[in-house]
Amino acid sequence: MNELLKNLRVNVNEKIFLKDPETSQLGKKIVQNSILLIDELGFDNFTFKKLGQRIGSNESSIYRYFENKHKLLLYLTSWYWGWIEYKVVLATNSLDQPERKLLTAIEIVAAPVVQDSAYSHINEALLNKIVINEFSKSYLTKEVDKENKDGYFSIYKRLITRLRNLISEVRPNYRYPASLASTIVEGVMHQHFLKEHFVLITDCNDEITPAEFFCHLASTTLNLSTNEA
């Protein structure tokens, strides 16, 4: 899988950026260091001025790629969800049993992310932390309906749709496949957040992972056979 992931090209909506950062070394440097800086400072304290200082470039050069930091966050989170979707497709494509496909997909969505060398300019582990801590800020805005109409969240919704289809493949008569799929994806981020910050209100810890919890939730809800769960 890692060899295939090295050739991955996530097609982020072109309306999110002014110039594709993947087309230049400066663009990749902007992406690489924005991940590092957002992880270090938090999105609220992150600015293009600080990013420019980090990369030794004028702030105006960053604005040639992204209109504002909101669009940059949309780019980063879209890339992340596209990367996760690609991993789900690769891992489930050769599986025959619908139950195993579903549980494998949930495990990938919920698993802790470790950095690999597939993308030298993207630290996947830090990007995962940013998605857990900051993703909701990309859509809890007054502009969400317009941005949704413009396709800014299409990759995220496509991943949930894939999960919904896997749920329907397991249980065609289940009435709430989309709600369960979105609950799993959103819940994964929330449980990872609780595990790090509010340990008293989650059962997830070093022994019980969010992946284990959501596989159990799906198995119980959909009445999967014990040996698959």
Structural summary, described in words:
This protein has 229 residues and is mainly α. It has one domain (2-222): Orthogonal Bundle (Tetracycline Repressor, domain 2), CATH 1.10.357.10. 61% of the residues lie in helices and 0% in strands. It is built from 11 helices and no strands. It has helices at residues 2-5, 25-41, 48-55, 59-63, 69-92, 98-110, 124-134, 144-149, 154-170, 177-197, 210-222. Helix 5 crosses helix 7 (124-134). The chain starts with a helix and ends in a 7-residue tail after the last helix. The mean pLDDT is 93.
Question: What does this entry show, briefly?
Answer:
With about 230 residues, this protein is an all-alpha fold.
How is this fold's topology laid out?
Layout: H1 2-5, H2 25-41, H3 48-55, H4 59-63, H5 69-92, H6 98-110, H7 124-134, H8 144-149, H9 154-170, H10 177-197, H11 210-222
Tag the structure with descriptive keywords.
mainly alpha, 0% strand, 229 residues, 11 helices, Tetracycline Repressor, domain 2, single chain
Number of helices: 11
CATH topology: Tetracycline Repressor, domain 2
- CATH homologous superfamily name? Tetracycline Repressor, domain 2
Number of strands: 0
Strand content: under 5%
CATH architecture: Orthogonal Bundle
Main structural class: mainly alpha
Please outline the major beta sheet: none
Number of domain modules: 1
Helix residue percentage: 55-70%
Q: Which blocks of ≥5 consecutive residues have pLDDT under 50?
A: none
User: Based on CA inertia axes, which overall geometry fits?
Assistant: globular
In the CATH scheme, the class would be Mainly Alpha
CA distance, first residue to last residue: 24 Å
Order of helices and strands: HHHHHHHHHHH
Rg over CA atoms: 18 Å
Mean pLDDT across all amino acids: 93
